[in-house]
Amino acid sequence: MKNDVYWMKYALYFAKLAKNSGEIPVGAIIVKNNQIISFGNNNSIKKNDPTAHAEIIALRKAGKYLKNYRLLNTTMYVTLEPCLMCSGAIIISRISRLVFSTYNKKSNSIGSFIDLLGIYKINHKIRINSGILKKECTNIIKKFFSLKRK
């Protein structure tokens, strides 16, 4: 868990970058062999691209870095529970482990809305850990949307 806190701080850094550019503050990193191999932050608004989520950006960069679409023996750290699209991409990428901070009970797909990764017919199982730096990651999201509503 100590390592999870360490790496989640990096994902939170990228969430802050997203917030500072007016994007929903979500950040993601992918770690292999105790080294960051890719990162991403939400960029859908700036790029006018509904798929430019932090997770998708990090997955694309990791695939290029590893020269393989299968990201075996990697861990993704993300500040918010992945959506349905990102969860599907995580499954296809064959990431070994997913660590996220906070659940989004309205639309995400790892247990709070639908448990995509828990469907038994999916042939790739991903180990999941949640709640890492929950207070910090929840606060950045809440503050972002609170300011948007004003």
Description:
Helices cover 41% and strands 19% of the residues. The chain is α/β, with parallel strands linked by helices. It starts with a helix and ends with a helix. It has a five-stranded mixed beta sheet. The protein contains five helices and five strands, in the order αββααβαββα. The model has no long low-confidence stretch (mean pLDDT 89).
Keywords:
150 residues; alpha/beta; five-stranded mixed beta sheet; 5 strands
Brief characterization of the structure:
This protein has 150 residues and is an alpha/beta fold.
SSE topology:
Blueprint: H1 2-20, E1 27-32, E2 35-41, H2 44-47, H3 54-66, E3 75-80, H4 84-93, E4 97-102, E5 127-130, H5 134-149
Parallel strand pairs: 3-4, 4-5
Antiparallel strand pairs: 1-2, 1-3
Helix pairs in contact: 1-5, 3-4
